[in-house]
Amino acid sequence: MLKARINKIEEEEGVKYEIYIPKENEASILIYLDKESFLSFLEGLVEYGTLNKEEVINV
Question: Organism's domain of life (predicted)?
Answer without folding.
Answer: Bacteria
